[in-house]
Design brief:
Elements lengths: L1 H8 L14 H14 L1 H7 L1 H11 L3 H4 L13 H10 L20
Helix pairs in contact: 2-3, 3-4
Length: 107
């Protein structure tokens, strides 16, 4: 967190959203979002952080999701990851504040 905050304060470009430098709780939230939405980039550039989150969540999203093409590696790969995960039998629903999740469909 401190290294990330220092880089953000110095105006250095960072992989994570600079809002994560606000405090440790926001850093955890921003890092978690990145871990699930752009896992290949996080694993490549912040391997130690990726490993910590992998142990915490007991998941390896980079191992489950396809690697993005080089031309889209820094773009919004999250929506593509969600589509890939859905085709693998998993579903992700993004809710706005105050929304309730839809009822689960039974097979």
């Amino acid at each position: 967190f401190e290294a990330f905050r220092a880089a953000t304060d110095a105006g250095e470009p960072t992989l994570l959203d600079s809002y994560g430098a606000t405090n440790p709780v926001e850093f955890f939230a921003v890092a978690t979002e990145f871990f699930f939405e752009r896992p290949h980039e996080m694993r490549a550039k912040h391997a130690a952080l990726y490993e910590q989150l992998q142990q915490f969540y007991r998941q390896d999203p980079a191992g489950l999701l396809p690697r993005p093409p080089a031309s889209q590696a820094s773009g919004d790969w999250g929506s593509r990851n969600r589509r890939a995960a859905e085709t693998a039998g998993r579903s992700f629903v993004r809710l706005r504040a105050g929304q309730t999740p839809p009822a689960r469909r039974r097979p």
